[in-house]
Amino acid sequence: MLLITVFLSFAALVSSGHSPHSAYIEELVRNNAFGVRISDNVMEDACLDLADLVRKYNYPFEEHSVTTEDGYILGLHRIPHGRDSHNVAGDKPVVFLMHGLMTSSSDHVIMGPGNGLAYILAEEGYDVWMGNARGNYFSRNHRTLNPDDQRSGFWHFSWDEIGNRDLPAMIDYALQHTGKSALHYIGFSQGTTSFFVMASLRPEYNQKIISMHALAPVAYMEYSRNPLFNFLAPYAYDLEALARLIGLGEVFPNSEIFTIIGKNFCNDEAITQPICSSIVFFIAGFNENQHNATMLPVILGHTPAGAAIRQFAHYGQSITNKDFRRYDHGLLENMLIYGSIIPPRYDLSQITAPVFLHYSDSDPLADTADVDRLYRGLGRPMGKFRVPQATFSHVDFLWGIDAKTLVYDRVIRYMQIMEILN
Ligand SMILES: *[C@@H]1O[C@H](CO)[C@@H](O)[C@H](O)[C@H]1NC(C)=O
C-alpha cells in the first residue's frame, strides 16, 4: 500500500515545461562545432529542452506534428544527418526509434553524442526519426480532448492504442516526408511491445519495415522479475478503478520537480546520489558496471515524461494472465469492443517484418524464457542476440556505458545487411 501511495503521490505532481534560450544556445553551438562526444556540462544538459540539447551539440533537430485517426496530436522528432560524418542532408535510409514506458524521444539523445543511439545512427548515415507516444511530454495534445481534465477520456489508452494508432500515423508521416517506401525500426522495451501490437493488428505495415530491432523485447511477461511491476500486477484492475475514482489517468508527467531532484540530490557531489541510483535500479534492473551516475541529473531532467495509468495496468494484466493479449476492459466492455469475453491474443504469426531480438541475461523485464517464447511465435524471426555481458540489464540498452559496443554496433551491421538484401 505504501508503494501505491508513493506511486500516486508522484503522479499528482504538476507538469511544467522548459523554456528555450536561443542566444545562449547559439553561443554553445559555436563552442561545440565538432568532436564533442560526452556531456560537457551535466547541470546544463539537465535543464535544456530537448531541441536545444541536440542543437547545442551542433546536430540538426526538426520537430514535426502528426495527428492520429483518433485525434491525438503527436510530436515527431528528426535528426536528418550527422555532424562529424555524413553531415549533409540528402537521400539517406530512414530509421525510426521508439521509446519505452514513461519516457520520450529523449531516450536516444540524453547520453550525448558518441553514446546516444540517435547520434550514432546519424553519424552512420541514417535519417533518424524519433516517435513520441500519446500522453508523453511531446504528445500531450488532442484535437478535442483535454489532457488536463483527467475525466475527458484523453487518458483512456494503453500501449494497444500506441501500437494500433500512433505508430502507423508516425511511420506513414516519416515515409511520406522522405519519399521512401520502407524504413528500419528500433524499439526499446514498450517501443517493442507497441511494434508487436501494430504488426499483428495491422499486418499491412510489415511491408514498410526493412528490419526491426527489438532492444529489451517485451511481449510476454510471465517471468517478469521487476519488483514494482510484480507488486502492482494483482491490482491491474483495482489500480485503475482506484485511479479513476480519484480522477487520475496520468502518471509521472514530465515535471520540473524531477529536474530539481536530479540537480540537487543526484549529482556527483551529493551524498544522496546512491539513493538515486538505487531507485533507477529498483525500477529498471540492477547493474552497477553499466551505470554512469554522473549522468543522473540529465536523465532526471528529461525523464519521466508521462504515461497513462492504463499502460501500467496492461503490463500488469500480461503478468497476471501470462499471455500477450489486448487490453482487458472487463467482461461487458470486452464483449462490445472485441466480441468476446476474454480479450483476443495478439497474433504474432502475422508479424512478417524481419525481426531481430536483442536481449540480456539479467533483464528483469524481458526474461530469457519470455523472449524465447516471443521468438518462437514470430512470423519472420531473423535472429536472437544475447548481449555478451551477464550483468547487462534493462535500461543499459539505452543508458549503459558500453551500449554502443555491446548492442548498437551489431544492430547497425544487421541494418546494413538488410538494406543490401532489400
Ligand atoms: C560519465 O559521464 C560523464 C559526463 O558525461 C563523462 O565525463 C564520463 O566519461 C562518463 N563515464 C564513463 C565511464 O563513460
TrEMBL record:
<keyword id="KW-0443">Lipid metabolism</keyword>
<keyword id="KW-0325">Glycoprotein</keyword>
<dbReference type="Pfam" id="PF04083">
    <property type="entry name" value="Abhydro_lipase"/>
</dbReference>
<dbReference type="InterPro" id="IPR006693">
    <property type="entry name" value="AB_hydrolase_lipase"/>
</dbReference>
<keyword id="KW-0732">Signal</keyword>
<feature type="signal peptide">
    <location>
        <begin position="1"/>
        <end position="16"/>
    </location>
</feature>
<keyword id="KW-0442">Lipid degradation</keyword>
<dbReference type="InterPro" id="IPR029058">
    <property type="entry name" value="AB_hydrolase_fold"/>
</dbReference>
<dbReference type="GO" id="GO:0016788">
    <property type="term" value="F:hydrolase activity, acting on ester bonds"/>
</dbReference>
<comment type="similarity">
    <text>Belongs to the AB hydrolase superfamily. Lipase family.</text>
</comment>
<dbReference type="InterPro" id="IPR025483">
    <property type="entry name" value="Lipase_euk"/>
</dbReference>
<feature type="domain" description="Partial AB-hydrolase lipase">
    <location>
        <begin position="51"/>
        <end position="111"/>
    </location>
</feature>
<protein>
    <recommendedName>
        <fullName>Lipase</fullName>
    </recommendedName>
</protein>
<dbReference type="GO" id="GO:0016042">
    <property type="term" value="P:lipid catabolic process"/>
</dbReference>
<feature type="active site" description="Charge relay system">
    <location>
        <position position="394"/>
    </location>
</feature>
<keyword id="KW-0378">Hydrolase</keyword>
<feature type="active site" description="Charge relay system">
    <location>
        <position position="363"/>
    </location>
</feature>
<feature type="active site" description="Nucleophile">
    <location>
        <position position="189"/>
    </location>
</feature>
